[in-house]
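Input (structure):
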């Protein structure tokens, strides 16, 4: 079995490193000094460069102008983006496009995939539910309108929608009276759609999406079994890739700082207590990495396992949530007071890490989900 990345996947990662090379993690005001959002919108200039490098259409099929790559390639790119705290909806947009391609109708694919792959249309996903702790698909109801071609009517609230104020469409999971889950592509500007400002620990503006009898055409609703579960798994796996990239950058910052910080005539990196803590965090990162690639490979290949792919995704998110928290906490400790200096970027990474830790469920939620899967599937 060959665990190396393909040439195409490595090329995507290399292209990402080139695009993100000159991105500064402190290009916007510090969230510690800002009461509202750190910026009015995401980094549009970076978004254009990602489009020019064909990194917005990684998962889009060649027939729609894309690269036709997989979740592994996307995670490699997301890993690089997190190292510089790139302020772009790369995960949400890519995952939404992948869901439209895999489950949407031909008319919807033709209308969105090429344009979004060129960066002309931006998509995001409402995946946090009403409170951030309840299933997202239960926060909104969907009922079919009356008459032929009447489409669907949506009612409900989704909280903490990332990049909601910048996206052209929000992919909203909703449940029907028949206990099915559909995915509706809701325009940001539409009758019955309202947004309320919310803010992440990272200082980015989120949106509380309120839907009041919002009518969506049949073309823009994906009514295919398993579509939401697949999209949620891809979003969760991508979040693990972001956590890994962020954690790797933070551990490197800690290594560089402790190698230069001298105490009692020696670099503090040479002290056993410091070295042991750094080694523990390195082990965390390697565990985060191996569980991430297992989940991404299962999503990409469709390979069968002892548990459904959701089990591998849950394991990856447990490690990502716990691991990234430990990495940034240790980094703050090893940096001392310097880690809290708002002129030094470590506190920004800490704020982003907290957001990633809780996004799409903290470790405890995924431990519970994993327990349910283990109870339902015999491993014998």
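Output (sequence):
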């Amino acid at each position: 079995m060959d665990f190396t990345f393909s040439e195409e996947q490595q090329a995507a990662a290399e292209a990402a490193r080139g695009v993100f090379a000159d991105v500064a993690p402190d290009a916007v005001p510090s969230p510690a000094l800002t009461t509202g959002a750190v910026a009015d919108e995401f980094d549009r200039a970076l978004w254009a460069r990602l489009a020019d490098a064909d990194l917005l259409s990684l998962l889009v099929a060649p027939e729609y102008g894309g690269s036709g790559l997989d979740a592994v390639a996307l995670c490699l790119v997301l890993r690089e983006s997190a190292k510089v705290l790139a302020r772009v909806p790369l995960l949400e947009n890519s995952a939404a496009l992948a869901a439209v391609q895999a489950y949407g109708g031909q008319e919807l694919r033709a209308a969105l995939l090429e344009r979004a792959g060129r960066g002309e249309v931006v998509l995001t996903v409402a995946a946090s539910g009403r409170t951030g702790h309840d299933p997202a698909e239960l926060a909104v109801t969907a009922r079919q309108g009356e008459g032929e071609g009447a489409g669907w009517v949506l009612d409900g609230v989704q909280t903490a929608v990332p990049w909601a104020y910048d996206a052209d469409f929000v992919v909203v999971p909703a449940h029907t009276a028949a206990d099915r889950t559909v995915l509706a592509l809701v325009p940001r500007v539409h009758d019955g759609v309202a947004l309320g400002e919310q803010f992440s620990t990272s200082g980015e503006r989120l949106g509380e999406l309120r839907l009041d009898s919002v009518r969506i055409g049949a073309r823009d609703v994906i009514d295919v079994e398993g579509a939401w579960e697949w999209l949620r798994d891809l979003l969760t796996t991508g979040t693990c890739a972001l956590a890994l990239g962020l954690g790797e950058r933070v551990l490197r910052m800690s290594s560089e700082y402790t190698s230069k910080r001298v105490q009692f005539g020696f670099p503090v990196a040479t002290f056993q207590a410091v070295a042991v803590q750094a080694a523990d965090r390195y082990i965390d990162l390697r565990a985060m990495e191996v569980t991430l690639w297992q989940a991404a490979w299962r999503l990409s290949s469709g390979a069968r396992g002892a548990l459904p792919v959701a089990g591998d995704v849950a394991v990856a998110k447990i490690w990502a949530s716990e691991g990234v928290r430990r990495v940034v906490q240790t980094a703050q400790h090893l940096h001392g007071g310097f880690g809290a200096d708002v002129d030094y970027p470590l506190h920004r990474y800490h704020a982003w890490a907290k957001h990633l830790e809780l996004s799409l469920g903290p470790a405890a939620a995924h431990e519970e989900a994993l327990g349910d899967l283990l109870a339902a599937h015999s491993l014998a």
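Notes: The mean pLDDT is 95. The chain has ten helices and ten strands.
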